[in-house]
Amino acid sequence: MMWKVARFAAASLRGSRRLSTAIPAPSIVHKRGADILHDPWFNKDTGFPLTERDRLGLRGLLPPRVISFEQQYARFMESYQSLEKNTQGQPDSIVSLAKWRILNRLHDRNETLYYRVLIDNIKDFAPIIYTPTVGLVCQNYSGLFRRPRGMYFSAKDKGEMMSMIYNWPAQKVDMIVITDGSRILGLGDLGVQGIGIPIGKLDMYVAAAGINPQKILPIMLDVGTNNQKLLEDPLYLGLRRPRLEGDEYLEIVDEFMEAIHTRWPKAIVQFEDFQMKWAFETLQRYRKKFCMFNDDIQGTAGVALAGLLGTVRTQGRPLEDFTKQKIVVVGAGSAGLGVLSMAVQAVARMGGNRATATNNFFLLDKDGLITKERKNLDPAAAPFARNQGDIEGLKEGDNLIEVIKKVRPHVLLGLSGVGGIFNEEVLKSMRESDSPKPAIFAMSNPTKNAECTAIDAFKHAGPNIVFGSGSPFENVDLGNGKVGHVNQANNMYLFPGIGLGALLSGARLITDGMLQAAAECLASYMTDEEIQDGILYPSVNR
Ligand SMILES: NC(=O)c1ccc[n+]([C@@H]2O[C@H](COP(=O)([O-])OP(=O)(O)OC[C@H]3O[C@@H](n4cnc5c(N)ncnc54)[C@H](O)[C@@H]3O)[C@@H](O)[C@H]2O)c1
Ligand SMILES: O=C(O)C[C@H](O)C(=O)O
Ligand SMILES: [Mg+2]
Question: Which of 283, 327, 405, 477 could form a disulfide with 294 if both were Cys (CB 3.0 to 4.6 A apart)?
Fold first, then answer.
């Protein structure tokens, strides 16, 4: 067989400073002719110069004119912009799905061009390939499906994974994002359709951390679904059976982790959007054995902590005053508990007392304030359960408004998945906060699951608040030339860096100390001027 060497995908991207760290020497392509045109890793569409057409057996398979990469880029952006123009006035969901389709088609055809446009236009395209549109894509995945992306392991593959893993065409994989689809954003159990999330997360790895796109691998672990609507949908693409539970479930994940690390011992695995019990269980089970982390627990916590440190600065206080901030967290799931656990570590690192670190934290779930009186108190939430009467009148099951009125928190942070629960009354009660700049974080995704909108937050809680949301909102016009800044408090600010850092350092494990350092590093990017304007995170472009 004749082996051809071509300087391909990597070459066009290598101009980017961010990509230069991770992209290695030119890829070697073992394909010829039409096989190359149908391989998005190597395809250049009409961009193949005549010499390459000759060498690779492409002559006659393409129209004769060679179109440069820059021209292809301009043509794509033009069609994207005309799509925007032509869909004006149509419902948001139609417009964003149309945008996702055009980007997805490019992704499937020519990854080099896809990642170039994504990197250059990340602020505009992130809401399409990531939250909120990715949520809509997952909800409609079985209908939208045209081509597979990543790998799918199912309960039916038990005992076969070790050989299946060798079906993946790349020699090396650096970064894996895996989900079992059981808690996709705030949209619940979407079964196999959750694969959109690992795909979107890994796009962020390429765009934001310069990870080589040929060394990423999105994974769906399909152990069934408990979503009745999907089970009854004849076009549903996943296993039509209820989710595996208990040991049966863990055996599948164990087998997958062994298979992955047998083929790629150094691959980093990010667990994403697992329901809480499995999120915690798998993190504990694997974190001392493999280089892995859970983004919803740990990535979210780091971004939230960076935001919380920023809010201390907005109040004109030294960072150590973080230990005195009263924080109400709404949602005692993987994300909410992750945030509070990391906040405790931060207090300890700042010299505060670990034993009393939780004194200023208040945790609510769907049954209200969690206290030690709670029946069937979840052991994961137990460290944050209050004593009744800690603060005058505070009691088990108090609703959010009662808690805010009694506590007068500096920060109200939502990770409940419930859209709109920071209603007018809740937001107005934050006006009584003990902070001169109360902070409101509506971190649930996608947009319709956010605890409140940015407009409502500034309208009801007042113009002096600091605001963050998991999905993007426009900045708010406060009148008199003033702007209410919207921060996107989303783990996307950390996970690409965590993966890249672990990769470049050759770390064997991802430790709490590394995550704390990442959070503090993120917080330290912000200048005092930005912080004074309520800007807690760098812009997505940065
Ligand atoms: N912005 C980010 O970076 C980020 C990161 C992770 C998760 N999230 C979002 O956070 C949400 C929750 O994720 P999770 O993994 O913690 O989910 P989860 O299912 O583990 O936890 C949800 C929690 O919310 C509580 N809850 C439900 N209804 C409530 C109500 N009416 N009032 C108070 N609490 C209520 C539940 O009791 C549970 O404790 C999702 O919408 C997800 O998209 C955002
Ligand atoms: O996916 C996101 O946008 C953030 C987070 O991981 C989530 O589960 O909501
Ligand atoms: Mg997630």
Answer: 283
